[in-house]
Amino acid sequence: MKKKATTEVPINDVIAQRWSPRAFDPNYIIEDDSIKSLFEAARWAPSCYGDQPWQFILFNKKDATSWTRALNCLSIGNQNWAMDASILIVVCANKNFNHNNEPNQWAHYDTGAAGENICLQATSMDLSAHQMGGFDKEKIRNLSNIPINFDILACMVVGKKLDESKLSKIQKDKEGQVRSRKKLKDIYFINEWK
After folding, report:
1. How far is the C-alpha of 182 from the C-alpha of 37, rounded, in Å?
2. pTM value?
3. Beta strands in 18-143 (DSSP E)
4. Most buried pick, 53, 63, 76, 160, via CB within 10 A?
5. Is residue 6 part of a domain?
6. Are 154 and 91 spatial neighbours (Cβ–Cβ below 8 Å)?
7. What is the pLDDT of residues 104-151, one digit of tens each?
8. Residue 143 structural domain
9. Largest Cα–Cα separation, the chain
10. Residue 132: beta bridge partners?
11. Which residues are 152's β-sheet partners?
12. Does a structural domain hold residue 159?
């Protein structure tokens, strides 16, 4: 299923084609080189001072025990569909700069850019990513031994979209929903806030 964004002006195809499905092919396995490509894309995201405050924890479906433990940190609603993806990534941001250990007020912003790079790289590879906020932060922190100086921002799954012919009626209804965004004129001002 393709759901290219209907834009008011042209944008890059990779951006227009990126969307967050909830129906993944449960049998698809992402090769290690493809996983490395996702993280390489994240590595080249912009960051304040070039600090790269992001850190990711990878859970691969090939490791069934760890995969199940990670899935159990997600909300029930997210577990129901995320289990069919190929990998799960926990997205973390270092609250302090690496070069001077002072608070980094741009860490979340920069880590968000790295996360989006993963999403766009996945799209360019004919894969899909879905970022989630529905998870238990303390559970995932304890499972992965994430240091307290890192904020846990999101969980993300990546996999191959389920072929449209294999979607259930419920999945077709959810996946087929029209993508919508605010009007372009409603997201920015010129010179001052109005």
Report:
1. 32
2. 0.94
3. 54-60, 87-94, 128-132
4. 53
5. no
6. yes
7. 999 999 999 999 999 999 999 999 999 999 999 999 999 999 999 999
8. 13-163
9. 54
10. 155
11. 92
12. yes
